[in-house]
User: What shape does this take?
Amino acid sequence: MSGERLGRREFLKNAGLAGIAVGAAGITGAGFQVRSAKAAEKRSVPKTPIRLAAISFLTGAAAAPFGIPADNAYKLCAEKINSEGGILGRKIDLQSFDEAGGGDSQVKLARKLILEDKVDAVLGYISSGNCKAVLPLSDELGGLIIAYDCGTHELLEEEKSPFKFPKYELGFRSSAHLGIDNIGLALFIEEHFKGVKKIAGINPDYAWGRESWLIFEKAIKQLIPGVEVVNTLWPKLFTTDYTAHISALIGSGAEIIHSALWGGDAVTFSKQAIGMGLFNKAKMAYSRGEPYPQEVGMEFPEGQIICCAGTHYFLYPEHDKWPLNKWFVESYHKKYGKYPTYPCYHAYQAIYTYKAAVEKAGSLLGGWPTQEEIAKAASGLSIETPSGILTIGADHNGREDVLVGISKKVSGHAFPILDPEMMAIYPAHQVNAPAGIRTEDWIAGWKA
Assistant: This one.
Protein backbone atom coordinates (compact mmCIF):
# COMPACT_ATOMS: atom_id res chain seq x y z
CA MET A 1 0.00 0.00 0.00
CA SER A 2 1.50 3.31 -0.97
CA GLY A 3 0.84 6.63 0.73
CA GLU A 4 1.64 10.03 -0.72
CA ARG A 5 5.31 10.96 -0.59
CA LEU A 6 6.45 13.31 2.12
CA GLY A 7 9.99 14.35 2.93
CA ARG A 8 11.49 13.75 6.36
CA ARG A 9 12.02 17.45 7.05
CA GLU A 10 8.45 18.32 6.04
CA PHE A 11 7.02 15.52 8.17
CA LEU A 12 8.97 16.55 11.23
CA LYS A 13 7.88 20.12 10.74
CA ASN A 14 4.26 19.09 10.47
CA ALA A 15 4.62 16.97 13.58
CA GLY A 16 5.88 19.97 15.54
CA LEU A 17 9.60 19.13 15.28
CA ALA A 18 10.90 21.82 12.95
CA GLY A 19 13.45 22.92 15.53
CA ILE A 20 15.09 19.51 16.01
CA ALA A 21 18.25 20.36 14.11
CA VAL A 22 19.00 23.67 15.83
CA GLY A 23 21.09 22.15 18.58
CA ALA A 24 21.24 19.93 21.62
CA ALA A 25 18.32 21.51 23.46
CA GLY A 26 15.36 19.15 23.02
CA ILE A 27 11.89 20.39 22.15
CA THR A 28 8.48 18.85 22.56
CA GLY A 29 6.07 18.36 19.65
CA ALA A 30 3.16 16.09 18.83
CA GLY A 31 3.33 14.46 22.26
CA PHE A 32 6.99 13.39 22.27
CA GLN A 33 10.44 14.81 22.93
CA VAL A 34 13.69 14.27 21.07
CA ARG A 35 17.07 15.91 21.32
CA SER A 36 18.22 15.54 17.74
CA ALA A 37 17.28 14.03 14.42
CA LYS A 38 20.04 11.48 15.01
CA ALA A 39 18.42 10.44 18.26
CA ALA A 40 15.06 10.06 16.55
CA GLU A 41 16.62 7.67 14.04
CA LYS A 42 17.68 5.33 16.85
CA ARG A 43 14.17 4.50 17.90
CA SER A 44 13.50 0.83 18.38
CA VAL A 45 10.60 -1.23 17.11
CA PRO A 46 8.85 -3.17 19.90
CA LYS A 47 9.11 -6.95 19.74
CA THR A 48 5.54 -7.43 20.96
CA PRO A 49 2.59 -7.86 18.56
CA ILE A 50 0.46 -4.90 17.52
CA ARG A 51 -2.79 -5.01 19.46
CA LEU A 52 -5.74 -3.97 17.31
CA ALA A 53 -9.33 -3.98 18.54
CA ALA A 54 -11.89 -4.59 15.78
CA ILE A 55 -15.42 -3.62 16.78
CA SER A 56 -18.51 -4.56 14.76
CA PHE A 57 -21.98 -5.93 15.38
CA LEU A 58 -21.43 -9.63 16.06
CA THR A 59 -24.93 -10.21 17.46
CA GLY A 60 -28.33 -8.77 16.62
CA ALA A 61 -30.03 -7.76 13.36
CA ALA A 62 -26.98 -5.98 11.97
CA ALA A 63 -24.60 -8.88 12.52
CA ALA A 64 -25.27 -11.18 9.54
CA PRO A 65 -25.34 -8.62 6.70
CA PHE A 66 -22.89 -6.13 8.23
CA GLY A 67 -20.88 -6.85 11.33
CA ILE A 68 -19.81 -10.44 10.77
CA PRO A 69 -18.76 -9.88 7.12
CA ALA A 70 -16.72 -6.87 8.22
CA ASP A 71 -15.11 -8.83 11.06
CA ASN A 72 -14.29 -11.61 8.60
CA ALA A 73 -12.57 -9.05 6.37
CA TYR A 74 -10.54 -7.73 9.30
CA LYS A 75 -9.34 -11.27 9.99
CA LEU A 76 -8.53 -11.91 6.34
CA CYS A 77 -6.51 -8.70 6.11
CA ALA A 78 -4.67 -9.31 9.39
CA GLU A 79 -3.69 -12.78 8.18
CA LYS A 80 -2.46 -11.32 4.89
CA ILE A 81 -0.41 -8.62 6.61
CA ASN A 82 1.09 -11.09 9.06
CA SER A 83 1.99 -13.50 6.25
CA GLU A 84 3.95 -10.68 4.64
CA GLY A 85 5.93 -9.85 7.77
CA GLY A 86 3.54 -7.61 9.68
CA ILE A 87 3.88 -3.85 10.06
CA LEU A 88 7.49 -2.74 10.49
CA GLY A 89 8.17 -6.35 11.42
CA ARG A 90 5.46 -6.55 14.09
CA LYS A 91 2.65 -9.06 13.68
CA ILE A 92 -0.96 -8.07 14.33
CA ASP A 93 -2.86 -9.49 17.29
CA LEU A 94 -6.44 -8.78 16.21
CA GLN A 95 -9.16 -9.02 18.84
CA SER A 96 -12.83 -8.81 17.83
CA PHE A 97 -15.49 -7.16 20.00
CA ASP A 98 -19.26 -6.84 19.71
CA GLU A 99 -20.72 -3.41 18.99
CA ALA A 100 -24.10 -4.33 20.46
CA GLY A 101 -25.34 -2.63 23.60
CA GLY A 102 -25.58 1.02 22.60
CA GLY A 103 -23.42 4.11 23.09
CA ASP A 104 -22.86 3.86 26.84
CA SER A 105 -21.69 0.27 26.49
CA GLN A 106 -19.30 1.19 23.70
CA VAL A 107 -17.87 4.14 25.65
CA LYS A 108 -17.09 1.78 28.54
CA LEU A 109 -15.50 -0.73 26.17
CA ALA A 110 -13.38 1.94 24.45
CA ARG A 111 -12.15 3.24 27.81
CA LYS A 112 -11.14 -0.25 28.83
CA LEU A 113 -9.41 -1.00 25.53
CA ILE A 114 -7.39 2.23 25.54
CA LEU A 115 -6.64 2.74 29.25
CA GLU A 116 -6.42 -0.81 30.59
CA ASP A 117 -5.68 -3.07 27.64
CA LYS A 118 -3.38 -0.49 25.98
CA VAL A 119 -4.40 -1.40 22.44
CA ASP A 120 -2.46 0.28 19.67
CA ALA A 121 -5.63 1.29 17.83
CA VAL A 122 -9.37 0.81 17.85
CA LEU A 123 -10.89 0.06 14.44
CA GLY A 124 -14.62 0.09 14.64
CA TYR A 125 -18.24 1.08 14.60
CA ILE A 126 -21.08 0.68 12.19
CA SER A 127 -23.60 2.72 14.17
CA SER A 128 -23.47 6.48 13.70
CA GLY A 129 -24.70 6.90 17.28
CA ASN A 130 -21.83 4.79 18.60
CA CYS A 131 -19.32 6.78 16.56
CA LYS A 132 -20.61 10.06 17.94
CA ALA A 133 -20.29 8.69 21.47
CA VAL A 134 -16.85 7.11 21.10
CA LEU A 135 -14.73 9.17 18.69
CA PRO A 136 -14.32 12.14 21.10
CA LEU A 137 -12.58 9.71 23.45
CA SER A 138 -9.64 9.54 21.05
CA ASP A 139 -8.22 12.85 22.20
CA GLU A 140 -9.56 12.59 25.74
CA LEU A 141 -7.86 9.24 26.36
CA GLY A 142 -4.92 9.58 23.96
CA GLY A 143 -5.91 6.56 21.89
CA LEU A 144 -5.99 6.21 18.11
CA ILE A 145 -9.55 5.47 16.93
CA ILE A 146 -10.35 4.81 13.27
CA ALA A 147 -14.09 4.76 12.58
CA TYR A 148 -14.43 2.34 9.71
CA ASP A 149 -18.07 2.50 8.63
CA CYS A 150 -20.42 4.85 10.51
CA GLY A 151 -21.79 7.29 7.97
CA THR A 152 -23.03 10.37 9.81
CA HIS A 153 -21.64 13.46 8.10
CA GLU A 154 -21.88 15.35 11.39
CA LEU A 155 -19.20 13.20 13.03
CA LEU A 156 -16.29 15.38 11.89
CA GLU A 157 -18.17 18.54 10.90
CA GLU A 158 -18.95 21.57 13.07
CA GLU A 159 -22.17 23.58 13.27
CA LYS A 160 -21.12 26.46 10.99
CA SER A 161 -19.08 26.88 7.82
CA PRO A 162 -16.22 27.41 7.54
CA PHE A 163 -14.98 25.41 10.51
CA LYS A 164 -11.57 24.51 11.86
CA PHE A 165 -10.36 20.96 11.38
CA PRO A 166 -9.49 18.29 12.28
CA LYS A 167 -12.13 18.00 14.95
CA TYR A 168 -10.13 15.30 16.75
CA GLU A 169 -6.37 14.93 16.48
CA LEU A 170 -6.42 11.16 17.07
CA GLY A 171 -9.86 10.38 15.65
CA PHE A 172 -10.38 9.41 12.01
CA ARG A 173 -12.91 7.92 9.65
CA SER A 174 -11.33 5.73 6.97
CA SER A 175 -14.38 5.81 4.68
CA ALA A 176 -16.45 8.59 3.21
CA HIS A 177 -19.58 9.74 5.04
CA LEU A 178 -23.21 9.52 3.94
CA GLY A 179 -22.84 12.53 1.66
CA ILE A 180 -21.46 10.36 -1.14
CA ASP A 181 -24.35 7.90 -0.92
CA ASN A 182 -27.17 10.40 -1.04
CA ILE A 183 -25.56 12.88 -3.39
CA GLY A 184 -24.64 9.96 -5.64
CA LEU A 185 -28.25 8.76 -5.66
CA ALA A 186 -29.51 12.25 -6.47
CA LEU A 187 -27.02 12.62 -9.33
CA PHE A 188 -27.98 9.22 -10.71
CA ILE A 189 -31.71 9.96 -10.55
CA GLU A 190 -31.23 13.33 -12.21
CA GLU A 191 -29.18 11.68 -14.95
CA HIS A 192 -31.35 8.62 -15.62
CA PHE A 193 -34.85 9.55 -14.37
CA LYS A 194 -35.16 13.18 -15.37
CA GLY A 195 -38.96 13.05 -15.53
CA VAL A 196 -39.47 12.01 -11.90
CA LYS A 197 -42.04 14.20 -10.18
CA LYS A 198 -42.88 12.47 -6.90
CA ILE A 199 -40.50 10.96 -4.36
CA ALA A 200 -40.88 9.54 -0.87
CA GLY A 201 -38.58 8.30 1.87
CA ILE A 202 -38.50 5.52 4.44
CA ASN A 203 -35.58 5.85 6.81
CA PRO A 204 -34.74 4.73 10.35
CA ASP A 205 -35.71 7.20 13.04
CA TYR A 206 -32.31 8.19 14.38
CA ALA A 207 -29.25 10.16 13.25
CA TRP A 208 -28.30 7.93 10.32
CA GLY A 209 -31.77 7.89 8.77
CA ARG A 210 -32.59 11.52 9.45
CA GLU A 211 -29.30 12.79 8.13
CA SER A 212 -29.38 10.52 5.06
CA TRP A 213 -32.79 11.85 4.07
CA LEU A 214 -31.72 15.44 4.81
CA ILE A 215 -28.79 15.25 2.41
CA PHE A 216 -30.71 13.35 -0.27
CA GLU A 217 -33.64 15.78 -0.14
CA LYS A 218 -31.39 18.82 -0.35
CA ALA A 219 -29.42 17.34 -3.25
CA ILE A 220 -32.40 16.12 -5.28
CA LYS A 221 -34.21 19.45 -4.90
CA GLN A 222 -31.12 21.29 -6.09
CA LEU A 223 -30.82 19.00 -9.10
CA ILE A 224 -34.57 18.63 -9.89
CA PRO A 225 -36.19 21.79 -8.45
CA GLY A 226 -39.79 20.78 -9.23
CA VAL A 227 -39.72 17.38 -7.51
CA GLU A 228 -42.39 16.82 -4.85
CA VAL A 229 -41.90 14.91 -1.59
CA VAL A 230 -45.18 13.03 -1.08
CA ASN A 231 -44.35 11.07 2.08
CA THR A 232 -41.58 10.57 4.63
CA LEU A 233 -41.72 7.62 7.01
CA TRP A 234 -39.57 7.03 10.10
CA PRO A 235 -39.77 3.46 11.42
CA LYS A 236 -37.88 2.69 14.60
CA LEU A 237 -34.56 0.90 14.34
CA PHE A 238 -34.97 -2.90 14.31
CA THR A 239 -38.62 -2.77 13.27
CA THR A 240 -39.90 -6.22 12.32
CA ASP A 241 -43.22 -5.36 10.65
CA TYR A 242 -43.20 -2.80 7.83
CA THR A 243 -46.61 -3.63 6.36
CA ALA A 244 -48.23 -0.33 7.41
CA HIS A 245 -45.28 1.63 6.05
CA ILE A 246 -45.34 -0.26 2.77
CA SER A 247 -49.09 0.34 2.37
CA ALA A 248 -48.53 4.05 2.92
CA LEU A 249 -45.76 4.12 0.30
CA ILE A 250 -47.93 2.30 -2.23
CA GLY A 251 -50.72 4.81 -1.66
CA SER A 252 -48.41 7.84 -1.86
CA GLY A 253 -48.00 7.76 -5.62
CA ALA A 254 -44.23 8.09 -5.27
CA GLU A 255 -42.22 7.07 -8.33
CA ILE A 256 -38.93 6.72 -6.44
CA ILE A 257 -38.56 5.91 -2.74
CA HIS A 258 -35.34 6.77 -0.93
CA SER A 259 -34.18 4.49 1.88
CA ALA A 260 -31.22 4.34 4.23
CA LEU A 261 -32.56 1.24 6.00
CA TRP A 262 -29.63 -1.07 6.65
CA GLY A 263 -28.66 -4.44 7.99
CA GLY A 264 -31.48 -6.77 8.98
CA ASP A 265 -33.97 -3.88 8.70
CA ALA A 266 -33.27 -3.46 4.98
CA VAL A 267 -33.56 -7.21 4.39
CA THR A 268 -36.84 -7.47 6.32
CA PHE A 269 -38.33 -4.42 4.59
CA SER A 270 -37.30 -5.64 1.14
CA LYS A 271 -38.80 -9.10 1.63
CA GLN A 272 -42.07 -7.67 2.93
CA ALA A 273 -42.17 -5.10 0.13
CA ILE A 274 -41.74 -7.87 -2.45
CA GLY A 275 -44.71 -9.74 -1.00
CA MET A 276 -46.91 -6.63 -1.00
CA GLY A 277 -46.05 -5.57 -4.54
CA LEU A 278 -44.33 -2.28 -3.73
CA PHE A 279 -41.72 -2.79 -6.42
CA ASN A 280 -44.48 -2.92 -9.05
CA LYS A 281 -45.52 0.60 -8.06
CA ALA A 282 -42.22 2.41 -7.51
CA LYS A 283 -38.46 2.08 -7.64
CA MET A 284 -36.44 1.94 -4.45
CA ALA A 285 -33.27 4.02 -4.16
CA TYR A 286 -31.13 2.34 -1.48
CA SER A 287 -28.44 4.68 -0.16
CA ARG A 288 -26.19 1.78 0.88
CA GLY A 289 -28.02 -1.04 -0.82
CA GLU A 290 -25.13 -3.05 -2.22
CA PRO A 291 -25.37 -5.99 0.26
CA TYR A 292 -29.08 -6.68 -0.12
CA PRO A 293 -29.42 -8.40 -3.49
CA GLN A 294 -26.96 -11.00 -2.19
CA GLU A 295 -28.79 -11.23 1.15
CA VAL A 296 -32.28 -11.56 -0.38
CA GLY A 297 -31.26 -13.68 -3.39
CA MET A 298 -33.04 -14.03 -6.71
CA GLU A 299 -36.28 -12.67 -5.23
CA PHE A 300 -34.67 -9.25 -5.09
CA PRO A 301 -36.35 -7.26 -7.87
CA GLU A 302 -34.71 -5.89 -10.96
CA GLY A 303 -34.64 -2.19 -11.74
CA GLN A 304 -33.88 -0.91 -8.24
CA ILE A 305 -31.36 1.89 -7.70
CA ILE A 306 -28.41 0.70 -5.64
CA CYS A 307 -25.61 2.79 -4.14
CA CYS A 308 -22.44 1.05 -3.00
CA ALA A 309 -21.21 3.34 -0.18
CA GLY A 310 -18.22 4.13 -2.38
CA THR A 311 -17.03 1.99 -5.26
CA HIS A 312 -17.32 -1.09 -3.08
CA TYR A 313 -18.50 -3.87 -5.33
CA PHE A 314 -17.28 -7.39 -5.97
CA LEU A 315 -17.33 -6.84 -9.75
CA TYR A 316 -15.84 -3.32 -9.73
CA PRO A 317 -13.15 -2.27 -10.31
CA GLU A 318 -12.91 -4.98 -12.97
CA HIS A 319 -10.58 -7.76 -11.88
CA ASP A 320 -8.44 -7.64 -15.01
CA LYS A 321 -7.86 -3.92 -14.48
CA TRP A 322 -7.50 -3.89 -10.68
CA PRO A 323 -5.82 -7.07 -9.38
CA LEU A 324 -6.25 -6.02 -5.75
CA ASN A 325 -10.02 -6.38 -6.05
CA LYS A 326 -9.56 -9.76 -7.71
CA TRP A 327 -7.43 -10.93 -4.77
CA PHE A 328 -9.86 -9.57 -2.20
CA VAL A 329 -12.99 -11.03 -3.79
CA GLU A 330 -11.48 -14.43 -4.50
CA SER A 331 -9.81 -14.74 -1.11
CA TYR A 332 -12.91 -13.67 0.79
CA HIS A 333 -15.20 -15.95 -1.24
CA LYS A 334 -12.88 -18.93 -0.82
CA LYS A 335 -12.64 -18.43 2.94
CA TYR A 336 -16.23 -17.47 3.77
CA GLY A 337 -18.38 -18.71 0.86
CA LYS A 338 -19.86 -15.30 0.03
CA TYR A 339 -18.77 -12.24 -1.90
CA PRO A 340 -17.46 -9.29 0.12
CA THR A 341 -19.94 -6.45 0.60
CA TYR A 342 -19.16 -2.83 1.32
CA PRO A 343 -18.65 -3.32 5.10
CA CYS A 344 -15.86 -5.74 4.14
CA TYR A 345 -14.25 -3.13 1.94
CA HIS A 346 -14.57 -0.58 4.73
CA ALA A 347 -12.80 -2.97 7.11
CA TYR A 348 -9.97 -3.32 4.59
CA GLN A 349 -9.70 0.47 4.39
CA ALA A 350 -9.41 0.85 8.15
CA ILE A 351 -6.70 -1.72 8.79
CA TYR A 352 -4.66 -0.72 5.74
CA THR A 353 -4.98 2.98 6.56
CA TYR A 354 -3.43 2.17 9.92
CA LYS A 355 -0.72 0.08 8.27
CA ALA A 356 0.15 2.74 5.71
CA ALA A 357 0.24 5.53 8.31
CA VAL A 358 2.53 3.54 10.63
CA GLU A 359 4.89 2.64 7.79
CA LYS A 360 4.95 6.20 6.48
CA ALA A 361 5.75 7.68 9.90
CA GLY A 362 8.19 4.89 10.75
CA SER A 363 10.17 5.34 7.55
CA LEU A 364 10.56 9.04 8.29
CA LEU A 365 11.37 8.70 11.99
CA GLY A 366 13.57 5.62 11.94
CA GLY A 367 11.54 3.54 14.37
CA TRP A 368 8.13 2.90 15.81
CA PRO A 369 6.00 6.10 15.80
CA THR A 370 3.82 7.43 18.59
CA GLN A 371 0.06 7.65 18.29
CA GLU A 372 0.36 11.34 17.48
CA GLU A 373 2.92 10.69 14.76
CA ILE A 374 0.75 7.99 13.21
CA ALA A 375 -2.13 10.46 13.16
CA LYS A 376 0.03 13.10 11.48
CA ALA A 377 1.06 10.58 8.85
CA ALA A 378 -2.54 9.47 8.24
CA SER A 379 -3.75 12.98 7.45
CA GLY A 380 -3.50 13.45 3.68
CA LEU A 381 -2.64 9.79 3.10
CA SER A 382 -3.68 8.11 -0.14
CA ILE A 383 -3.71 4.32 -0.44
CA GLU A 384 -4.70 1.70 -2.96
CA THR A 385 -7.63 -0.43 -1.84
CA PRO A 386 -9.67 -3.15 -3.58
CA SER A 387 -12.17 -0.39 -4.45
CA GLY A 388 -9.68 2.07 -5.89
CA ILE A 389 -7.94 5.00 -4.24
CA LEU A 390 -8.86 6.16 -0.75
CA THR A 391 -7.65 9.54 0.52
CA ILE A 392 -7.77 10.65 4.14
CA GLY A 393 -8.47 14.38 4.12
CA ALA A 394 -6.99 17.01 6.38
CA ASP A 395 -10.29 16.92 8.26
CA HIS A 396 -9.63 13.20 8.97
CA ASN A 397 -12.53 12.09 6.76
CA GLY A 398 -12.06 9.47 4.09
CA ARG A 399 -12.78 10.61 0.54
CA GLU A 400 -13.60 8.28 -2.32
CA ASP A 401 -15.60 7.91 -5.51
CA VAL A 402 -19.11 6.42 -5.44
CA LEU A 403 -20.76 3.77 -7.61
CA VAL A 404 -24.51 3.75 -8.32
CA GLY A 405 -26.32 1.25 -10.52
CA ILE A 406 -29.51 -0.66 -11.31
CA SER A 407 -30.20 -4.21 -10.15
CA LYS A 408 -30.48 -6.81 -12.91
CA LYS A 409 -30.73 -10.59 -13.05
CA VAL A 410 -27.84 -11.94 -15.10
CA SER A 411 -27.13 -15.54 -16.01
CA GLY A 412 -24.40 -17.09 -13.91
CA HIS A 413 -25.16 -15.15 -10.73
CA ALA A 414 -27.28 -16.40 -7.83
CA PHE A 415 -28.62 -12.92 -7.09
CA PRO A 416 -29.20 -9.73 -9.11
CA ILE A 417 -26.05 -7.77 -9.84
CA LEU A 418 -25.64 -4.21 -11.06
CA ASP A 419 -26.50 -3.86 -14.74
CA PRO A 420 -23.13 -3.36 -16.48
CA GLU A 421 -24.84 -0.96 -18.91
CA MET A 422 -26.35 1.20 -16.15
CA MET A 423 -23.49 1.80 -13.73
CA ALA A 424 -22.27 5.31 -12.97
CA ILE A 425 -19.12 6.38 -11.11
CA TYR A 426 -19.18 9.83 -9.54
CA PRO A 427 -15.70 11.12 -8.64
CA ALA A 428 -14.78 12.04 -5.08
CA HIS A 429 -14.72 15.79 -5.68
CA GLN A 430 -18.32 15.65 -6.95
CA VAL A 431 -19.78 13.89 -3.91
CA ASN A 432 -17.58 14.94 -0.97
CA ALA A 433 -17.77 18.43 0.53
CA PRO A 434 -14.41 20.23 0.87
CA ALA A 435 -12.73 20.18 4.27
CA GLY A 436 -14.06 22.92 6.51
CA ILE A 437 -17.42 23.26 4.73
CA ARG A 438 -20.58 21.62 6.06
CA THR A 439 -22.15 19.22 3.60
CA GLU A 440 -25.53 21.01 3.70
CA ASP A 441 -23.89 24.37 3.00
CA TRP A 442 -21.89 22.92 0.14
CA ILE A 443 -25.01 21.53 -1.53
CA ALA A 444 -26.84 24.82 -1.03
CA GLY A 445 -24.04 26.53 -2.94
CA TRP A 446 -24.28 24.37 -6.03
CA LYS A 447 -24.91 26.31 -9.21
CA ALA A 448 -27.94 25.25 -11.23
Observations:
- The CA atoms of residues 35 and 304 lie 61 Å apart.
